[in-house]
Each structure stands twice: as C-alpha cells, then as structure tokens.
Hints:
Elements: H1 3-17, H2 23-42, H3 55-67, H4 72-88, H5 116-122, H6 126-138, H7 142-147, H8 150-153, E1 158-161, E2 172-175, H9 179-192, H10 198-202, H11 204-217, H12 227-238, H13 244-255, H14 262-266
Helix pairs in contact: 1-2, 2-4, 6-9, 6-11, 6-12, 12-13
Amino acid sequence: MSRKQKLTQTMIQYLKQDNQGSLNTRQVRLFSMNRIIDDLFAARIVPITWYALTTEHIKKLVSYWQNKGLKTATIMNYLVCLRYFLNKINHTIEGIDNQSLSLVKPRNNMRPEIHSDTILNAINEPIAYLLFALQAKFGLTLLESMFLVPAIHIHENELWITREISTNRKDRLIPIINEEQQLIITKLVTLTENKKSLHQQFGEHHLRLAYKFALSALKLPTQVSYRYLYAKSRFDHLCKNHSKSDAKKIVIIETNINKTSPLWNTIHE
C-alpha cells in the first residue's frame, strides 16, 4: 500500500467515526482532507504516516498552494480542517497556526469614499435620512439609531447612549456641538413625537426597508456601518485644538470602540 493510500485510509477511518458538526461540515472536512492528501502527493512531500507530518511539510504545502494561486482564505480553510484532524489523532505540530505561517486574510474595505453632507442632501426619505444621519453625525450604530428615544437619550448638549440600547452594553456621552446635529435632533423628535424610538414608531422591518431602498438608490451598501464618517470628521475637528493622541482618545470614548472594532483602524490610519 502506498503512502498516499495509507494516509487516506487512516483519515477516512477517523472522520467516518466523527459525528461532530453538521452533515455539511463533516463533508467539507472530508473533501478538504482528501484535497490535502492529493496536494501532499502532488508536491512530493507525502509523509510515511500522519504522525510523521511536520511543520516543514505544512510550510511546503502552503507554499505549493500559494504557487498554484489558491486564495489565502481557501488555504486557511483547508488548514482549519487539517488542524481539526490532527487534534483528533492526538498529533500536535507546533507552528502551523495562521500567524506562524504568515497567513492573513486581505482586508475587504467596503467603506465607500463619500461626503456625509452630500448623501444626506440626496436622501429624501425621512426615516432613512435619520438612520444615516445618526451614524454619520453622532457615531451611533444602526441599531442604536433605531432604538434611540429622544425623551430619554437626548439632553441639552449631548446624547446619552445608555447600556440598554448601546451595542456593547456600555454607557457613553456624545456631544451636540453644532447646528447640523441640532437639526437632526429636531427632525427625530418630530418624527417620533419625542416619546418613542424609530423602532417603536415604525417597526424594524419598515425601518430596514426604507434604509435599504434609500441607500441602494445612491448605490451605497447597507451592510456598512457609516459611523466611521463621524469618527473621521470628529477626529479632524479635535486635532485643531488637541494633539492627535488626545483626539484619538476622545473619539474612542465617544464611540466606545476597542482594538477589535473595524472603526479602530479609521482613527489609527
């Protein structure tokens, strides 16, 4: 029996007995492991057994895939299945995590280069206008914009985003510093009669439809959080009277972000 056949036989023996995950997940594992064995053979680096597989084998396999033009995301998915299998057979190999193999998914920057005022002037639908404006001019998330209640969360010179509606369950204050923001507040109060949120007044389904149609008409993606526009403009404004370091700290506090948030990169570019 050839090395390739031995690896395949062992792999099937373990995976056929494994019932973890959905049927689709198990099928993906089986397909991926067969692909890995085929490519170990094609790259002429087939080990005698799975227990003879080393870090060097994996590095050469990754290099082989890269030379064949496989996308980084695809390689990473294959390695997830390989690491799962190696864990099942109790064979630990150091240095085969994505970081050690220098595998990083390219950032898909979907954020369009737009000017918030231009977009707001082009949105005629009042609900969509407010949902976009609260993100772009106050740094709220879309859900926070839906659940904001004027009578509770709007004070004289600031928005008080309480943990009840905050996306990360933390309180924060956002200053109201210009007439443009005040105009947005006035429109929100009028549309919600001050005592209700947009969500209470119209329902989430209607809100999302109005938002989707308005942004789609302007060829803007609806899955993007537009609070990055607030972060950028607020940071630029603060830099006039503060150091960049202090300006970053203020924006971080006002938006309640951390290093894992995509918004973090906006103020650290």
